[in-house]
Design a protein that fits this description.
- The structure holds two protein chains of two kinds.
- Chain A is mostly beta strands.
- Chain A contains no helices and eleven strands.
- In chain A, the strands form two sheets. In chain A, strands 2, 4, 5, 6, 9, 10 and 11 form a seven-stranded mixed sheet that branches. In chain A, strands 1-3-8-7 form a four-stranded antiparallel sheet, with no helix packed on it.
- In chain A, a hairpin with a 6-residue loop joins strand 4 and strand 5.
- By secondary structure, chain B is mainly beta.
- In chain B, strands 2, 4, 5, 6, 9, 10 and 11 form a seven-stranded mixed sheet that branches.
- The chains are: A mainly beta, B mainly beta.
- The interface between A and B is medium-sized, with 21 and 21 residues.
């Protein structure tokens, strides 16, 4: 299985801050990576696919980048509704695997 | 709008079989166009893909669970189901049904629509 390693596992930050979350794959997954946002008690919601393409309706404060084994999700200016847990997903190879999550908390 | 809804017992005894059903609206699982999957999440934990099917494709399972799980389909009810045998406390989790990408696309394992999830607790 391809291992997906996210960092940091959690971070405390403030509204308006810039946030960067990293996801590393144990093998080359090209650009077959997605990012999800999950709020407590809710199902994950898609944010990004193909490493850098925003899903329709996702604010432009979110952006994704990377290819191969290193990927980042950036929130350029954190909004109150962005406090959540974020997961990366590699869908390049069977079985699909998720990162362990990054919890973004209010400082 | 595609919607998925999980249903099933919230409590299962150890060594018994966990059975869940996903009812889909807004899309036809029998069309054979998309893959449909089960994913689970232990409390406070990460996400684990369990398995998937497509009526025009194949059925695949996570190797770590393959010996204990099976997915079945009822196209007349637009439902699909998960059975997991010989459960233990480690199988306690929220279980989600999801839609994956189109058959024969790069997005077969990219999950766009999710159910709200159902908590299954394994305990005597």
């Amino acid at each position: 299985d391809i291992q997906m390693t996210q960092s940091p596992s959690s971070l405390s930050t403030s509204v308006g801050d810039r946030v960067t979350i990293t996801c590393r794959a144990s093998q080359d997954i090209r650009n077959n990576l997605g990012w999800y946002q999950q709020k407590p008690g809710k199902a994950p919601e898609r944010l990004v696919y193909a490493a850098s393409r925003l899903q329709s309706g996702v604010p432009s404060t979110f952006s994704g980048s990377g290819s191969g084994t290193e990927f980042t999700l950036t929130i350029s200016s954190l909004q109150p509704e962005d406090f959540a847990t974020y997961y990366c997903l590699q869908y390049n190879s069977y079985p699909p695997t998720f990162g362990q999550g990054t919890k973004v908390e209010i400082k | 709008q595609v919607q998925l809804q999980e249903s099933g017992p919230g409590l299962v005894k150890p060594s018994q079989t966990l059975s869940l059903t996903c009812t889909v609206s807004g899309a036809s699982i029998g069309s054979g166009t998309y893959y449909w999957s089960w994913i689970r999440q232990p409390a406070g934990g990460g996400l684990e893909w369990i398995g998937r099917f497509c009526t025009s494709g194949s059925t695949n399972y996570n190797p770590s669970l393959k010996s204990r799980v099976s997915i079945s389909v009822d196209t007349s009810k637009n439902q699909f189901s998960l059975d997991m045998t010989s459960v233990t406390a480690a199988d306690t989790a929220v279980y989600y049904c999801t839609r994956g990408g189109p058959l024969n696309s790069a997005y077969e394992y990219y999950f766009d629509y999710w159910g709200q999830g159902t908590l299954v607790t394994v305990s005597s």
